[in-house]
Design goal:
7-stranded antiparallel sheet, alpha+beta, about 25% helix, globular, about 25% strand
Length: about 170
Amino acid sequence: MKMEIVSRVTAVLALVALAALLASASTAQAQESAKPFAFPFAGPPGPNTWLFGQPYGNTTFAYRSRLGDYRMGQGLHFGIDISARCGTPVLAVGDGVVTDVDNVYGFGSGPHNIMINHPNGYASLYGHLLERPRIAVGTRVERGQPVALSGDPDETCYSRPHLHLEIRDLS
């Protein structure tokens, strides 16, 4: 009788543990899909893939260049720079519609750039691209879809190759 009760209690505890495990897995999946944006490069960071280059905000270089490259932001760097080899595929951070291609005079970040508006009220700007993106204005893109190739603002592919990424509030 005691063995039967112990085995029933053990079975119930095993079912409770399994239910908790399944609930936490579905919660993790829901949290991942609830994130508004993904990363613009595939794979983990490393010297052969990508590395964090320059943060958003008041950096020494942006301040020193406030009368030149950074005059629109009065010395602020409005995005983040992610170092990557030229030609690394750049992925859309979220679903959206391409609104601008190569609008260097409007957005900077030359020699090439692309802007994608997202349905959540934000836009993503990808700058310092290797070549003019082959995707047309008005094209719908999905999160994780390749949209461009990373490049170098100096067009050398050895001086400072990186992706400049901005997330802009459209409201």
